[in-house]
Structures are given as C-alpha cells and as structure tokens.
C-alpha cells in the first residue's frame, strides 16, 4: 500500500490493564471502532499513545498487533520520538520490519536542537529507511519549529512527504501550499483548528477525540470534502467543547475518560500519569455528558 496522506487518522491511545501491561483486548475494540467509522489510517505511539512511557518491545507489539488487525485496509504509522539520531534510525528500521507503512517523526527529544541539527536529524532517518515520513511540527509543545526554509532542505529527501501541522497558526496551511504545492501534504494536528485547516486546504486530520468519537470525526471530514460545509460546521460546533479536551496537559486522561463513556476504551494510564479526580474530573465529565445528551444524528457520510 502506497501512503495516502489524506482523511482522518486517529492518534490512538495505548490501552493498559490494571497491572500496567498492554491491554490488547481493549485496544482491539477501539481499533475496530475506528475502522468501522471509516478512518483512513492509524497512528501509534504519539503523545496520546503515551509514547514516552512505552518500552521498545511494547511499541513493536502495538505495531504488529495493529498491522494484523487492519489487514491492509488502512496504513499503520508509528511515531518516532527519540533522543538520539542512532535510536531514531533504529526505531524507523524496526517499524519497517514490523509492517508499518509510514512514520510520524518529532524533532529530537529533550535536547532543543538548532535548525541545522533538526534538519540533519530528519534527513539521517529518511536516508536510512524506505518508509514515507510525516514531520510532526509542534513548536508549542516541543519547542522546536520546522520552518519553511528547513522544509525546503528536507524535501530533498523524497520519502519526507507530509507535515503534521500543529503550529496553531492557521495561516501556515496557506504558506505551505504556496511554497510547496502538493509536494508536502498537510495533516492538521490540532483538533480545535481541524475544520478550519481542512477548508484552507489541509489534506487530512491527525485527530485526538476521534479515539472516543470516530464517526463524528470522519463525518466532518467527509462532509467538508463533499462540499456540504454547513453540515460539517454544525457537527463541528457541537464537537468543539470535546475537542478542547485535546489542547490540555491532561489530554490523555481526558480522552481516555471520554472513551469509557462511549464504550471503546478504559481509563487506565501509565504512571506518572494518574486518572483525573476532584474538580478537574468533574469538569471533564460535565463536558462529555453534556455533549452526549446533544449528540447529533449523522448523515450517511460513508456514501457521499
């Protein structure tokens, strides 16, 4: 399967048992719900996937399990978030061996690399794997920005194909299109700017609340793609209070709690994260419960 950078790709959560082991049964339930809703790819081991807490063998188990579950229906991507170039290259090569069809890749972790170092890091990995790469550009959370001049250099690597655009600057979609046309595909990575980004020309959406609400997320994408903009806007307006749970330091706990409410996940997180409690928990529950009471009836978005 050649990589198609389009549509909705959930950055799925990682499911854990009460004993802090991978919960592959709960994970399978969620992946099947995503496929039934019509997602266009699966992204493993991102921020929502608690990547920084996962052992290497756990990442590989998640990759092979997901590849077996999707059976070629959609591509499986794994996130690369490493501290060294050597480790990033090894992770990319293992992902390829395990059946992944693409990589989402962050700049180096912990060390705040300069522009030259960041470019060299991405290029080194690209030159040591045949997998297509989506650069995750999130300077708000990870403090390193991949600028247009840096992309100009990176695109000399033919397998650097896409960007997960998470700068929070909606005008960046137009800048990227003006600079690179279709050479650099754009996957919006901020839930609360998703529809706006799609309408400005983004090719797809790496989504968070899709983990709990897959059908609504895919419906918004398919409706706007079909030109049924007002219908997409109406669902998006209903969705926004939930989407705001994604732009929060406790996004993992927030979204896992939402998954419990929709019956496709568990609340278990890996320490040092802990489940929500007190006023914080009550607020998130109120947002979820209020949204569920007013959950929209979706059109037949799969046959637009």
From TrEMBL:
Alphabetically ordered keywords of this record: Lyase
SMART domains assigned to the protein according to its UniProt record, in alphabetical order: DHDPS
The keyword DNA damage is annotated on this UniProt entry: no
Cellular component terms (Gene Ontology): cytosol
InterPro entries: Aldolase_TIM, DapA-like
UniProt-recorded Gene Ontology molecular function terms: N-acetylneuraminate lyase activity
Catalytic residue list: 136, 164
Gene3D superfamilies, per database record: Aldolase class I
Gene Ontology biological process terms in this record: N-acetylneuraminate catabolic process
One Pfam family, short name: DHDPS
Keyword flag Lyase: yes
Positions of pyruvate binding: 206
Family in the record: Belongs to the DapA family.
Name by which UniProt lists this protein: 4-hydroxy-tetrahydrodipicolinate synthase
């Amino acid at each position: 399967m050649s990589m198609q950078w389009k549509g909705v790709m959930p950055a799925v959560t990682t499911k854990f048992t009460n004993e802090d082991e991978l919960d592959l049964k709960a994970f399978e339930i969620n992946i099947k719900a995503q496929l039934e809703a019509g997602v266009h790819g699966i992204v493993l081991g991102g921020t929502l996937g608690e990547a920084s807490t996962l052992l290497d063998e756990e990442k590989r188990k998640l990759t092979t399990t997901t590849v077996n579950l999707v059976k070629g229906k959609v591509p499986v991507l794994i996130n690369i978030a490493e501290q060294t170039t050597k480790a990033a290259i090894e992770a990319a090569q293992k992902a390829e061996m395990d059946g992944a069809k693409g990589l989402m890749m962050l700049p180096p972790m912990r060390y705040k690399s300069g522009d030259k170092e960041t470019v060299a890091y991405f290029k080194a990995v690209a030159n040591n794997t045949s997998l297509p790469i989506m650069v995750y550009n999130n300077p708000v959370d990870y403090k390193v920005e991949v600028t247009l001049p840096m992309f100009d250099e990176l695109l000399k690597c033919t397998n650097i194909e896409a960007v997960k655009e998470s700068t929070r600057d909606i005008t960046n979609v137009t800048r990227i299109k003006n600079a690179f046309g279709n050479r650099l595909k754009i996957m919006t990575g901020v839930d609360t700017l998703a529809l706006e980004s799609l309408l400005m020309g983004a090719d797809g959406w790496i989504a968070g609340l899709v983990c709990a609400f897959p059908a609504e997320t895919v419906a918004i994408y398919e409706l706007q793609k079909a030109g049924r903009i007002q219908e997409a806007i109406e669902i998006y307006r209903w969705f926004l209070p939930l989407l705001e749970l994604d732009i929060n330091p406790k996004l993992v706990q927030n979204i896992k709690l939402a998954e419990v409410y929709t019956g496709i996940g568990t609340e278990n997180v890996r320490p040092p994260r802990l489940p929500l409690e007190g006023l914080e928990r009550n607020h998130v529950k109120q947002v979820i419960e209020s949204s569920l009471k007013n959950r929209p009836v979706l059109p037949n978005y799969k046959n637009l």
